[in-house]
């Protein structure tokens, strides 16, 4: 008997997740080999409480119907456990779901969950906080911070946050130590990628893999907004920018120093703040994920 624990965030994405519980029940009720429980998040931090409850009761998998923020919250408790993570993408950007290539069609997604094939995938950490997709402290962090203040959510809001940040974001000056080298960086863009996706199918490094035991550090070392706009256009049109200052470094870890500075950070699309120093690490194969 497999035990599945579903966590639905009713306000993720378009907020139309109310019929999901009915849909899941009607599809699982005939599965005699599966025992399941469906819960809804009612407040911030509730997804964590529910995941701990699922772990206490030895569920085989916790399946999240939510955005990248809720997925990250649940996943942080599943790292280095035997309980698998399942993802039903109902958020707005859905970067994590896109990287794991889980079906966006709910019926196909449930079929995948019922089959229950799992694989072990890497998890990244930024000062010990986990990320499945990416974490960054340059432009992407500024966009996420701006977006967090917006009333409306969705692609258009991200777009306007991106435009505003392009002109008003102040480029942090940091010192990077990676692969035995140390050098200063004007971190217009500085992101550690575990997977390849930024959400909305935007990718800076389509070759980033979640099973190679490495993080891909994508760095744009410049203060020039013009250069940054050039890179952005390349990325949006799915080209690979060839430009001095734009590099990708593969490593298991990296440390970024910025003594006396307080910088914005984004972790799987959630805003946070970091002081003085940031340490990135990879935890190879640390999470079991239900995959197609
Ligand atoms: Mg990797």
Structural notes for this entry:
With 292 residues, this protein is of the alpha+beta class. The strands form two sheets. Strands 5, 6, 7, 8, 9, 10, 11, 12 and 13 form a nine-stranded antiparallel sheet that branches. A four-stranded parallel sheet has the order 2-1-3-4, sandwiched between helices. The longest helix is centred in the middle third of the chain and has 14 residues, at 155-168. Helices cover 28% and strands 37% of the residues. It folds into two domains: 2-116, Probable inorganic polyphosphate/atp-NAD kinase, domain 1 (Rossmann fold, 3-Layer(aba) Sandwich), CATH 3.40.50.10330; 129-281, Sandwich (Tumour Suppressor Smad4). The model has no long low-confidence stretch (mean pLDDT 89). The chain is built from eight helices and 13 strands. The protein has helices spanning 20-28, 46-56, 68-78, 95-100, 106-115, 139-148, 155-168, 225-236, and strands at 2-8, 34-40, 61-66, 84-89, 118-126, 129-131, 134-136, 173-178, 181-193, 215-221, 246-251, 253-267, 270-290. The structure holds magnesium ion. Magnesium ion (MG) is lined by residues 122, 194, 208-210, 212, 214-216.
């Amino acid at each position: 008997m497999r035990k599945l624990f579903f966590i639905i965030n009713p306000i993720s994405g378009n907020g139309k997740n109310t019929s999901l519980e009915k849909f899941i029940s009607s599809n699982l009720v005939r599965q005699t080999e599966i025992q399941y429980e469906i819960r809804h998040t009612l407040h911030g931090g509730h997804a964590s409480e529910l995941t701990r409850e699922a772990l206490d009761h030895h569920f085989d998998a916790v399946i999240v119907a939510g955005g990248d923020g809720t997925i990250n919250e649940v996943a942080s408790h599943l790292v280095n456990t035997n309980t698998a993570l399942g993802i039903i993408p109902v958020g707005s950007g859905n970067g994590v779901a896109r990287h794991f290539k889980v079906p966006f069609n709910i019926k196909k997604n449930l079929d995948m969950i019922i089959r229950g094939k799992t694989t072990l995938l890497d998890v990244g950490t930024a000062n010990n906080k986990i990320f499945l997709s990416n974490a960054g402290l340059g432009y992407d962090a500024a966009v996420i911070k701006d977006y967090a203040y917006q009333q409306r959510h969705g692609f258009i809001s991200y777009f306007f946050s991106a435009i505003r940040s392009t002109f008003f974001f102040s480029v942090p000056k940091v010192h990077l130590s990676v692969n035995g080298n140390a050098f200063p960086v004007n971190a217009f863009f500085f992101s550690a990628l575990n997977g390849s996706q930024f959400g909305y199918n935007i990718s800076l490094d389509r070759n980033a893999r979640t099973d190679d035991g490495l993080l891909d550090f994508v760095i744009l070392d410049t203060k020039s907004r013009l250069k940054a706009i050039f890179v952005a256009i390349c990325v949006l049109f799915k080209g690979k920018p060839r430009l001095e200052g734009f590099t990708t470094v593969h490593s298991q870890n990296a440390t970024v120093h910025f003594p006396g500075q307080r910088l914005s950070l984004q972790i799987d699309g959630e805003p946070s703040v970091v002081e003085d120093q940031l340490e990135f690490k990879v935890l190879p194969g640390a999470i079991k994920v239900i995959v197609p």
